[in-house]
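Good day; I would like, with your permission, to put a structural problem before you. A protein sequence and the structure tokens that stand for its backbone fold form the material at issue. The record follows directly beneath this note:
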Amino acid sequence: MLGHYADGSQRHWYPVDAVVSPKWYRQPLDKLLEPLAAANPYRLFVPGTWCPEIRMCCNDVMSPHDHAADIADVEAIKQVKYRYLRALDTKHWDDYADTLAEDIKADYGPSIGKELHFTNRADLVDYMRTSLGPNVITEHRVTHPEIIVTGDTASGSWYLQDRVIVAEFNFMLIGAAFYRDEYRRTEDGWKISVTGYDRTYDATMSLADLGFKIKPGRAIAI
């Protein structure tokens, strides 16, 4: 069919050419696309796969190389997020800082009635280092990543579940939230340039009458 554009031009857009079963999709992607790409600039829909289509713009089909690059970028961004959380919970602050852009913007909360806002890496790392000292045990887990890569930038959403324990005050917080991140490609790899979350809930409890004991593990840099 014809697509109409603001400059008055018209270009052909083509319908879905073929539905490919997951069994066929196990073949190398370039071999799968070769006969179709040679015949027509169509796109494919692949049911049940992580990335449901090879994207098409006008008469051009995204190459297998571009598709693989997108997947590699998403995986690299996931690794940055995982390192961010691991370094946070183990208190390896140099590793934590290495996941962040220097001009990072961070907004956390509200949690226990307080919001936190930062506009650079140094202030954010200093706050975390000071607030989450040896007497504070944290646990952060994320799932459900939704990551969109656009060239050298990307956005992401994650479902967070977290726990904070301060045994000397008989205090524990548990909660959940949705992270909203932005990422930037640099010479040193992907960095988090914007981060923050909005809580779905948080709950606090006293450990005073529970006989609760906690022993920090050797993974934590104390």
Summary: Helices lie at 22-25, 29-39, 64-90, 93-98, 121-131. The CA atoms of residues 157 and 180 lie 5 Å apart. Residues 1-5, 11-27, 40-61 have pLDDT under 50 and may be disordered. The first strand starts at residue 2 and ends at 4.
